[in-house]
# Entry
Amino acid sequence: MLKSVDTVAGYKTYIDLIYPLIEGKKIIRSGMTQEVQRVESAIEAACSGSSCALISSGDPGIYAMAGLVFEICQTKEIEIVPSGSRSDKDALQIEVIPGVPAVCAGASLLGAPLTHDFATISLSDLLTPWELIEKRIEAAARADFVVVIYNPKSKKRTWQLEKAQQILLKYRDRNTPTGIVTSAMRQNQDVQIVALEKLHEADVNMQTTVFVGNSTSSRYLDFMITPRGYSKKYKINANR
Amino acid sequence: MLKSVDTVAGYKTYIDLIYPLIEGKKIIRSGMTQEVQRVESAIEAACSGSSCALISSGDPGIYAMAGLVFEICQTKEIEIVPSGSRSDKDALQIEVIPGVPAVCAGASLLGAPLTHDFATISLSDLLTPWELIEKRIEAAARADFVVVIYNPKSKKRTWQLEKAQQILLKYRDRNTPTGIVTSAMRQNQDVQIVALEKLHEADVNMQTTVFVGNSTSSRYLDFMITPRGYSKKYKINANR
# Structure
């Protein structure tokens, strides 16, 4: 896929990660908070006839850049069609290529925390009012969803995770297994399982995803497990 | 990965899908509702010294078989360790390999419905009481999550999706864009976007994933978009 494009746009860290694969192509790289310019430049390149790949880590559709592509095309009233569709030749073709999001990569390292209903919530209040984030944490906690927390903490946002923990503790046992995965599948990968009451002591950053179990989740040895419910319905023989 | 294993276990449809890749290996295949036996057989094979791959479609950790593996090992008190760990040589090594779940594959075909917080809910009440499912739909609807519905309907479960729709309509506009993706990335793939009030008329089955937008989601041409909120914070120039 990358081979066939003329231009590659991305956050500088991700461009560096794949640089050996894209050497020689036109590159649009920019830093954090420059998302709008980066995506506008990528769309401009594509509209002027250059095929352009905009890269994200994980899955481009989960809290990532795919949304901004469509948001900008909509605002600018650019005519877009799904890639490969036979309609209007002048329209810009867009293809979103799904990937393995942090919620899946992290879960796989913890064991199986997501075998039942879950809610993902970003604690970043840069673009979302904190009141709405808090309302979502409360709702997910009350309805016994496994809760997956993205963007738990940054250098500037330091109090949100502890606040989320306090809300969750109103509805969950203090020993609820809580998985903390940092830099899943990358260098410096770190995987821990702690009790929910200890979450505020954990070392987390912007590369961390937090998994708070539901009322049936448990820890077994070094794994975190949310059962689907088979053992309630079918007999699992305790003997080997 | 598959090359290095002796035994492959899976639901018969998935075994058939990858059969050319696993010819000659020992195969454990079984049908729907035989999940417990299938996973028990896979664990038995692994415990007796055969390396065994248990396959799922999508991501094995999202409503899939990874959870049951751990559930059974826990019940039988089988000593398990993460694959590659240097501890006890007699322990069973387990590695969960993440994949692209239906929630990502489907979202990519719709555009970008998941750029903000979302909740995934299975409507299957075979293993979960309907009251809890309803409570989760209500909570997710009230707190304005994008709602992703797995297992919306089967031959025997026919009324749950319409009930879910009714709950969602208490909190969401009747025109809320709702994506319906069946057999994503497979033969017979089908992608539609309808208004929430029309969801009950849609053709859905066990291979369908439904995406109900939040209050900010919109439809633009053939795409469904949930904005992250950049356009509220940063100026997106409407001119090209």
